[in-house]
Amino acid sequence: MLTNLVRFKLLKKHFKFRDAYALFAGLKNKKETIVLPKLNRKIYLRPNSKDAETFEEIFLSHLYDIRLPIIPETIVDAGANVGFATLFFKIKYPDASIVAIEIETKNADAFRKNTTGFDNVTLHQQALYNKKSYFSIADPYKATNSFQIRKADSPENSDIDSVTLDEIISEKKWDTIDILKIDIEGAEKQLFEKNYENWLPKIKIIMIETHDRMVSGCSFTVMHTISKYNFILYTTTEGTLIYYNLDLIALPSL
User: Fold this and answer.
1) Residue 102 belongs to what domain range?
2) Closest CA to 180 of 160, 157, 199, 161
3) What is the DSSP letter of 60?
4) Which of 116, 178, 233, 253 shows the greatest Cβ crowding within 10 Å of its Cβ?
5) Is position 251 within any domain?
6) Does 68 reside within a domain?
7) Residue 253 forms part of a structural domain
8) Is the confidence at residue 57, as pLDDT, over 80?
9) Is residue 139 classed exposed, middle or buried when 0-12, 13-18 and 19+ CB atoms within 10 A define those classes?
10) How many whole angstroms separate alpha carbon 172 and alpha carbon 183?
11) Same domain for 40 and 134
């Protein structure tokens, strides 16, 4: 359990004093809208949701906050939820171009509110997958941060379609993806099962949370596929695995 002083110090790592104080007070008092005067933006936290918990997970832990050997220019935020990982990356790497992917409509709407005004941020309200497919959306845990996809029997009976990393790379005309952040509630198993041969060698850094508790075999499939290439598991942070592609970046000194 973090003390108030520690919470405030952690917020100051990412935000100016006035914004950190506004966030500290707003989170403590369960505000739905928190105004950040220095950033000139607002943070929106929906009532009866996991939004505040998700914000704290990203900004009060070292989930993605590690020293990298590169300054990322291209980022994919897969499983973007309401936009707090994208917000984190955009504050830390303001010149980066970010493609976010989120399957659920209310989350996608909240994402747009929380990232409004950012340059070079694109949202795909689709599922990240290994080929063109159609899905229904399931909410087995009755939460706002753990939606899953289920294969639909036809486009007409689906809630959403898919996008592939090959499509994103082609659409954005990127040579590489500098950071691929993946938190997609078990769909990482299918993503790494097939059709990865073109995009995977183009990834410099993978930040991935696997969900074996949701879909059996996620961790094995991800690790087995990544092991075919020159990646190293550099570190883990709060359950997230951080891989470096040694063909594209130099291993940082410890």
Assistant:
1) 53-245
2) 199
3) S
4) 178
5) no
6) yes
7) no
8) yes
9) exposed
10) 21
11) no
Question: Residue 251's pLDDT band (boundaries 50, 70, 90)?
Answer: confident
Q: What is the pTM of this model?
A: 0.96
**Residue at 250 is within a domain:** no
**Into how many domains does the chain fold?**
2
Residue 92 CB coordination number (10 Å): 14
Q: Are residues 40 and 59 in the same domain?
A: no
Check which CATH number belongs to the domain holding 60 and give it. 3.40.50.150
Region 29-41: what's the mean pLDDT?
A: 97
pLDDT tens track for 164-188: 999 999 999 999 999 999 999 999 9
Going by the DSSP 8-state scheme, the letter that residue 175 receives in this structure is S
Residues facing residue 228 across a β-bridge: none
CA distance 24 to 175: 40
The answer on 215 and 170 residing in a single domain is: yes
99 Cβ partners below 8 Å, 6+ apart? 75, 76, 77, 122, 123, 124, 168, 172
- Number of neighbours of residue 73 by Cβ within 10 angstroms: 16
Instruction: Determine the residue type at 135.
Output: F
Phi and psi, residue 97, nearest 5°:
-95, 125
Looking at the structure, tell me whether residues 16 and 38 fall in a common domain: yes
Please indicate, yes or no, whether residues 68 and 190 belong to a single structural domain of this protein.
Answer: yes
Encoded amino acid at 188, one letter: E
251's tokens: 């291993």
Helix/strand/coil for 18? helix
Whether residue 3 is found in the same domain as residue 89: no
Edge to edge, the sheet with strand 240-245 lists 121-124, 97-101, 74-78, 177-182, 203-208, 240-245, 231-237
